[in-house]
Amino acid sequence: MLTFFGYLLVIFAIVITIVYPYLHKKWSESEKKSSYLNFISYLNFKVRAGVFLFGVLILLISESVIFSKEGHQYYILSPTGARSTIMSPGLKFIVPFSKIQEWEKFIDIKCVALDKQGNYKQDVTGIEGVIPNGINVRFIDKVDANVYASVRFEMPSDDESFIKLVETYRHPSNLINNTLLPTVSEQLKNVTFMYSAEDYVSGSATDYRMTIEDALKNGGFVVKKVEVHDTIYDESGVEDVLNKKRHIKEINKFIRNEKVYVNGVPKRIPHEINVNKIVTAQVIIDDVDLNKAFEDKLKQQRDISAEKIIEIQKVETARAAQQRIVAEGERDKAAERVKQEKMQVNTLIAIETRVKEEESNRQLAEIAVKTAELEAKALLIKEKAQADANRLKVNAGLTPQEKAQIEKETRIGVAHELSNMQVPANMIISGGNNSGNTTESLLQIKLLNDLTTNKKQ
User: Where are the transmembrane segments (predicted)?
Assistant: First the structure.
């Protein structure tokens, strides 16, 4: 607006200066001073010069001051040919009448799906580069897909790179249509051919996105072709699962692009984005629309896998039940074995206790026998002494009747003493060579007791 007003004042001053002689002459020749020409008397040279200079001043001010907006960069070409840039927002002073070219600091590229009428399904306002219906790519296993990506690029922030970029492409649309869109499409196709659709749906989606971002930021990968063998197995039955056997159905061969590494670092090919020092600020893979036939195949495989899993779970459940039954049987057997062993130990302890008791009784019996023998010997000695005494008496003059009476009393006394002597009821005497077994002796004693008891009955 200020520039327009300045130009208006300058043009007005020039026009007045041109028509002033004619109007002033006409005003002077008229007998009556026309009111509409009276203003000519005020438009002298000083006034015209002042209006002209004021207009020029306004033009200089409007052309030397620029308000740079946030998120924009400006390329300035002065009348003298000097080139400069403006990267920060605010009021900036430049050489008057310089050519200014405004560029967005960030350029957005987005893949947007179309509806049946050919209209965008999303609002594309503010998006500089729109790719309708995504980018068609092909995986290594010959599965087609449409990739929907959103990429944001940042213009170079240094003056030299930005000036070179502007002079190379001259307009943002040239940069978008001739470099950014083709480069994004090319890198997506190259990276996709390094993966298989099976890998993508099996958990490599994150790695796939990171590889695309890496390729856009740091340059494309130098790849080598590697032959890959994809083995497909027959459906496994329950017996095959239990026996851990698999049968090969077919082996597919295909070529895969793999990165070439130099000293552990991927070898790269710079693309136009890197060459122009454009920064890839953000990469988002919104969706990967796989081929319909491949998705149907995945659903079928998923259903088959689910059925297999159910059958395997049933087998595992039956096997677990079988193992549980066997384990319970082993547990019961072990418990019974422990019980029997405890009973045997108790029996052996009781037998050993009885053996020790019988051994003690045997020793006591032996002592009693020896005691009885000693008592018998003492009695015999006593009776013999009595007999000798009686003999001496007889020899001294006892009558036959007295001798008989003495012998009778002697025999009665011996019999009486013998009847009062205590000896063991049962006694077993081994051969004396200590070769007998304690358990064997115990069994002999038990057998003797049983025989004695049976006889008494």
Answer: 6-24, 45-67
Partners of residue 130 on adjacent β-strands: 110
Please tell me whether residue 67 adopts helix, strand or coil conformation: strand
Q: Is the pLDDT of residue 152 over 90?
A: yes
pTM (predicted TM-score): 0.55
Confidence of residue 389 (pLDDT cuts 50, 70, 90): confident
Q: CA-CA distance, 358 to 365, in Å (whole number)? A: 10
pLDDT value for 184: 92
Pairing of the two strands 129-132 and 106-112: parallel
pLDDT tens digits, 410-435: 777 767 766 665 555 555 555 555 55
Say which CATH topology domain 106-290 has.
Tetrahydropterin Synthase; Chain A (3.30.479)
Cα 99 from Cα 91, distance rounded (Å): 17
* Residue 361: burial class (beta carbons within 10 Å; 0-12, 13-18, 19+): middle
Q: Identify the CA nearest to 372 among candidates 419, 325, 433.
A: 419
**Rounded to 5°, angle at Cα 380 from 377 and 386:** 145
Chain centre distance of CA 368: 88
The per-residue pLDDT for 147 is 92
User: What percent of the chain has pLDDT above 70?
Assistant: 72
Query: Which residue type occupies 121?
Result: K
Determine contact, residues 292/168, Cβ cutoff 8 Å.
Answer: no
User: Alpha-carbon distance 84 to 105, whole Å?
Assistant: 16
User: Which residues on adjacent β-strands are paired with residue 229?
Assistant: 253
Query: Which helix (DSSP H) or strand (DSSP E) does residue 401 occupy?
Result: helix 400-420
Q: Which residue has the higher pLDDT, 154 or 345?
A: 154
Q: What's the average model confidence in pLDDT over 245-261? A: 72
Domain boundaries, the chain: 2-104, 106-290, 310-426+438-450
Please, which residues bridge with residue 268 across strands?
221
Q: For residues 277 and 179, what is the distance between their CA atoms, to the nearest angstrom?
A: 13
What is the dihedral angle through the alpha carbons of 197, 201, 204, 208, rounded to the nearest 10 degrees?
Answer: 60
Tell me how crowded residue 101 is: count the other CB atoms within 10 A of its CB: 14
